[in-house]
Amino acid sequence: MKRISPHCILMLFATLPSIGSSDDVQFQQLVSGCRASLRGMKVIDQNNVIATGSNSTAILTQDGGRSWVRLNVAELSELDFRDIETTGDGSLILMSTGPAEKSQIFRSEDMGQSWNVVHRNQESQGFFNGMAFTVDGFGLLVGDPIDGQLFLLNTSDFGKSWKRMPGPKLLDGEYGFAASGTGIVLGDEGQAWITTGAAAARVFNTTNHGQSWNVATTPIRTGEVSEGIFSIAFHGTSNGVIVGGDYKQPEIATANCAVTSNGGRDWSLAKVQMPHKACVRFMDSKRVLAVGRTGVMLSTDRGANWHTVSESNGTAAKFVWDLRSVRARVDRDKNFFVIAPR
What we know:
By secondary structure, the protein is mostly beta strands. It has strands at residues 2-3, 9-15, 26-31, 38-43, 49-53, 57-61, 69-70, 80-86, 92-97, 104-108, 116-120, 128-133, 139-146, 149-155, 163-165, 174-175, 184-186, 192-195, 197-198, 202-206, 214-217, 227-235, 239-246, 257-260, 268-269, 279-282, 288-292, 295-299, 307-310, 316-319, 335-341. A five-stranded antiparallel β-sheet has the order 1-7-6-5-4, with no helix packed on it. The protein is globular. Mean pLDDT is 86; it is low at 1-9 and 319-334.
């Protein structure tokens, strides 16, 4: 591992007060010393965090962000690591995105000290967008459509091997975004939700590990190639939030956030809208955080109303208590990390 000198990119660490106290979020800037554009992040606990991004960058802190080291993942220097996840057996799964063979899956069993390529995309139109796992070793990866179908890979052995599975039909010009790898979320009993944008902003839902799919149209802005849903989060299987917008015109603050209370069958616009956001995560049953180049916003009512808590721009947010992480533990101080370039 190569130790990084401190400059350029910041990771914001924050503490969210407990229920019943002030809703304000206190931020502390943590310098990572990395020049890459960071997009992916996995918070393992309040000390161990891995962030990933452009130029084959993967960096690790083991002291809560005070110092960072670079992990050697791939010989190629131009890979773009957009998503990193932990599995139920303690392994790390890292996804690169890009056309054709630039989309790859790496696996580590020793906290990133060594990596193996477990899948390399062979489809000329292939482009990986994001992935998610459950505690029992099941994982699902979603990519851009091929031949009019959503591209899907699944694994049942904690990411050691992957296979293609049929995906639902998409409309012409409909596809997902690889913003922070959070356009997909899994439940513990076969549920999955996947988001799209461009020609249509829809949410696809399965309750049987992808053997069949339902689809819901959402009120999120769409129609342009830069518009649609960028991130989805659920607390349980009923209450969900989606965020997005137009990344080319991020200041537009209409039809960028919607909520559901029936598992994604129906979506309605949030009462208070926001400019474009790239990632959304639940902190607990009511509090939700959304981040993007337009700042950080907090909701205390499952996404219905929002207020700005930081003007710092961000691309991803993960918590010590992260519902997507099967190894995460509840931190009573509600500590979380937000990636934010200086």
